[in-house]
Amino acid sequence: MPGTRASLWRFLPVLLVLLAACGRRGPPLAPQRIMPEAPILFPLRQQEGQLEVRWQAPRLDNRGAPGDLRLRKAILEMRVVDLGALAAAAREEARRPPDPEPEPDPEPEPDPETIASDEASGSSRDDPTTTPEDAPDDVTPEGEDVAAEEESLPVVAAVDRAEEDLPTAEGIDRQTQEPPVEVIPLGEQREGAAEAAPEASEPGPEPSALPPGAPASAESEPELQLPGAAADEPESDEDAPPEPQALSLDLEGIEFEVLAELDPGAPGEVLVHEIPLEPGWVGRRIEILVRYESGAGPTDESETVAFHVTPPLPMPSGLVAEVAEHRVAVQWEDTREDLDPFRIADPQFELLRRVAGGSLERVGRSLGPGLSDRQVAWDQEVCYQARVLLVGNEEGWTLGEAPPAGPPDAGTPPEPAELDGQEPDEVREPLPVRVPPTGSGAVSAGELSEPLCVVPRDTFPPPPPGDVRAIRLPEHTEISWRAPPDGGVSGYHVYRLGEEGIPPTRLNEAPVTGRVFLDAAPNPEETHEYAVTALDGADPPNESALSAPVTVVPRR
Predict the structure, then answer these.
(1) Between 135 and 436, residue with greater pLDDT
(2) Where are the beta strands (DSSP E) in 251-357?
């Protein structure tokens, strides 16, 4: 038992600490508010006079877990931005001259009576050694003894010592030196400065020409310029006028307005709402966001999506179809030149098809007036329609400004107009304005063209088989070959070739599905040639050309 008691005494401090901490409470934690996540808003689409808004309802809460979201309603908010007005305001602000800097207030002129009283008292307001008025009489200002010594020393002596210290260059005319300095006592500096001020403004004597070999200053040496030197110098790029930098639109201050309050839908459901486009929205920027009301409170707003409303896009016309091997090539007239300058991106084309009365499905998009359908439905009616698309991008676009009207001949400068003594207005350079991007998913779709219906017929034979071989055996001849690389073969025909001018003889009645054939009736003492053709799955099947012939000689 002594060992057990020693162990208990060893753990006694730990037990005391645990008992002391038992029952204590830490700071209260704020309860976590569980609410739905923000909805997801998809890019906008303009089609048939409507603006289509699609979004996904919240499917998780803010902890990333599914639960009872208690969605009540979806709220759409929208703002319409006038691009033209904002661009004009940005250009006006850029062309506005800067405000002039305020001129400093002139210094007040000294009062003659104050100057006279200072001179009478033997002090000067500008002299730093003057004793302040508020200083006590028994305190001597710092530096007074030094000022007294300077008054007792003759100033001309200092000037003479300075002239003696300066070396005199040999051959320099004395007339080029400064005139002698007139010595004025310190007490009379105020009157002397006032009398000498007009004399200092008078020009001094002209300096004489320097003798040969004397150093000349940059001001006295004239600049030499050779005839034609300016014309021979190449023009630098720095002298060229800089290109105007695109301005940016400021969208701050334009408030969102509630557009609609809609049914919330089920969690995670994709909802669609169509907004009729108004004529005044053409060329303007539409920005939309969506948020939700739930039992736990409002959700965060979705990301804002933008769109630039375009006018009705031109409808393609003149569709023609050409049936080719494994594809149907559809072409139409290019109408992109008729587009309005307000557009969200470079125009594209979209081709759609409807097979055997089904629904429209997209074939693809094209940067030019033509596209090929490679999923051909042979012997079935297929109808094609095309339309113009404007697809948004991530770079945005530039809203240009029309340059000022100039003379018919751009190379001849215009004559200055007479404005009754007024100066002609300066020609303003056009300033482009950069419009924020709309995103790669924004689409403006034009009207579908008239349908073009065709029935493609498969009249294109497959390529012939390759690597045909023939082996003579005692009882028959074995012919083998390799399938064509393109595939799509339903069978083969095997031919024995005769003399020139005689048609080949087909050895099989039904198409051969394999790639080996046995000719059991050849004359073993004669030489024979064989060839093979391929058949596709058309009805009736198309037969390829004969393969390269192979020759079998009699056995010796």
Answers:
(1) 436
(2) 257-262, 270-276, 285-294, 297-298, 305-308, 320-324, 327-331, 347-355
